[in-house]
Design brief:
The complex is a heterodimer of chains A (234) and B (378).
Chain A lengths: L3 E5 L3 H13 L3 E5 L2 H10 L4 E5 L7 H11 L5 E5 L4 H9 L4 E4 L4 H19 L9 E4 L2 E4 L4 E4 L2 E3 L3 H12 L4 E3 H9 L8 H13 L10 E4 L3 E4 L4
Parallel strand pairs in A: 1-2, 1-3, 3-4, 4-5
Antiparallel strand pairs in A: 6-7, 7-8, 8-9, 10-12, 11-12
Helix pairs in contact in A: 2-3, 6-7, 6-8
Chain B lengths: L7 H25 L5 H15 L4 H18 L11 H93 L5 H33 L7 E3 L1 H15 L5 E4 L6 E4 L1 H18 L6 E8 L3 E7 L7 H8 L16 H14 L5 E5 L2 E11 L6
Parallel strand pairs in B: 2-4
Antiparallel strand pairs in B: 1-3, 3-7, 4-5, 5-7, 6-7
Helix pairs in contact in B: 1-2, 1-3, 2-3, 2-4, 3-4, 4-5, 4-9, 5-9, 6-7, 7-9
The chains are: A alpha/beta (234), B alpha+beta (378).
Chain lengths: 234, 378
Amino acid sequence: MIQTILIVEDDKSICHFVGQALEYNGYEVVIAETARQAKAIFLSQPPVLVLLDLGLPDEDGMTLLETMKTLHPEIPVIVVSARIWEEEKVKALDMGADDYVVKPFGMSELMARVRTAIRHAYETGSGGHLRDADIFTCDGLVLDVPHHRVTLDGEEIHFTAHEFQILEQLMRNKGKVLTYAWLIRKIWGTYISTDNQILRVNMANIRKKLKENPASPRFIQTELGVGYRMIDEG
Amino acid sequence: MKKKYFRGQDWVIMIALLLLAGVISRILLPNTGVENNSALIFVVAVVIIARLTSGYLYGVMAAVISAFAINYFFMYPYMEFNISLTGYTVAMISMLVPATIVSVLTAQLKKHARAVEEREKRTRELYERNAQLEKEKTAMELESAKAAIRSNLLMAVSHDLRTPLTAISGSASYILSRGMDGDRKESLKLVKDIKDDAEWLTVMVENILSVTRLRDADEPLRVSAELPDEIIGSSVMKIRRRFPEASVDCELSDGILLAQMDPLLIQQVLINLLENGIRHSESKDPIRISAAAAGEDKVRFVVEDHGKGLPETIAAQIREDRPVVVDRRGDSYRGMGIGLAVCQSILKAHHSRLEVQTGEGGTAFMFELDRVQGEESI
C-alpha cells in the first residue's frame, strides 16, 4: 500500500526537495501551500503523516495543528519550524505534535523522524498497544512495570520510585520528545512548580545508573530547553 | 501659598472648645463659691483654640467672645452685661494677649514645619533625579557596549557571510552552465562545497541569533538550574555531527552538579569553543571538555586543545575582556572572531567572562557559572 504524506509548506524550494526525497523513499507526496488547502486535503484524503511548517500565509500553523489534532488525533504530525526558540517547540509538542524538526534539517534526520512517527502511529493504533504494555525493551534495557524491575544487559539495577516512573514514561513513548513540563506533571502532579531542578536531579541519577555518556547516549537523548527522548533503535 | 482664613474645621474647633469651657465653668460655678475660675478656664480654651486653628483670627475671636461670655454668664450680675466693672478690661486683655501670642507662635511653628517639609521634599526630588540620571547613564553605557558588539558583529558578518555566499552561488552557476556535459566528479565536489558552505552559514546564523536573543532580553536572562553534563553532551553531539572526524574527550562530573544558565546560550559558547579548537588549533589530538565544581558556589567549564596556540592579539583581547576583533587579511581565521565575540557577550550576560591560557602546548578556554546546590536525590 502506498503511503501518502501531506507537506504543508509555502516555500517552493523546500517543497521540491523534501517532496523529491520522500518520493525517492517510496512515499506519495501531496503538497498544500496554504492552511485552507491543507484542511481540504487532510479531510478528503487523510494522509499517514503530516509535515507541517508553522509559518503559513493564511493561518497560524499552531491553529492548524490544533484543528488537525482535533479531527484526526491518530494521524502523526511533524512540525517543521524555522524559528529556533525552544518555547515554540515546547508549545507545538504540548499541543499534540508528534515531533519537530528545525530548519535547516538534514534529509537523513527527517527520514528517520518520518519513519519513527509512522511506525508509532501504526503500533499504537492497531493492536500493538504499546502504551498499555507491561514490559518495555530498548537495546539492552528491560523495564518490567508490574514487577518494578529494571535490568541493563541482564543485570538488575535499582531505581527509586520517581526514577522508575520517568524511565517508564520515556520507554512508553520511545522516539518521542517528552517536554519537561509534561514529565513533571506526569510524575509529580500539578502541584509542583515549573522548576525543572527536581527533574534534572532525577535524570542525572538515572543516567549514572544506566552508565550513560551524554555525549554519545545509548538510551536517553537530551533536547536542550525542550525535554528528553528515548532513543528508538528501530 | 495662599492662606485660607475661613475654614469650616477651624470654626468647629473654636465653637466646640468655647462651649466646653462654658459647660465646665457652669458646672464649677455653684461649687467654688466666691472663687470664680471661669476666666482661667476660658483662657485655657482660647490658648488651645489659638494653637489648633490656623492664623490669628480664631484665637482673637475666641478671646473676644470669651470676654463677653464671662461677663454675661459668670460675673455678677449673672445673665446680663456689666461693662462698667473694672475687672472687665483686665479680663479682656488677659484673654487677648495670650491668644495673640499663641497664635503667632503657632503660625511661626507651622511655617517652620512647612519649610522643613518643603526642604525634605526638594532633597528627595533631587535624590530621585540623581538616581534617574545614574540609571540613564548606566543604560547608555550598556547601550554603547551593546552597540560595540553589534557593529563588531556586523562587520565580521558582512565579511564572513559574503565569502561562503560567493562560493555557493559561484559553484551552483558553474554546475548549471556545464549542464549534463560537465565532469561528474568535479560537479560532485562542487556540490559538496555548496553543502559545506551552507552548513557554515547555518552556524553563523545561529551565532547571530544568540546575540539577538541577548539583545531582545532587556529583562535578565531566563536562567534555570541545568546539568553541565547535559550541556556538554549536547554540544559534543552537535559538533560531532558537523566534524565527524574530530576527536573530543568529555570529562563528566562524579556527583550531581547543577549550574545556573540559559542552556542554549551556554551550548552555543561550548560549540564555538570546540569549533575553534577543531578548526584553528591544527592538531589532531583530542580536545578535552569538562565541567567541575569550583568551590561551593561556582562551576568551572574548560575546553582545552593541544594545538599551536592563539595569536597573541586575540589572547590579549580576551584577557583584557575586550570584544575579540580578528584582523582579517586572510580567510584562515574565518569566523573565529565572531565565535569568540559571541562567547564573550553570552558570558557577560551570565555575569561571567571568558578566560584563556595559551601557548606552545595548546589553548585552554575557561569560564565559571553560578553553582546551584541541588538535593542529591528526591
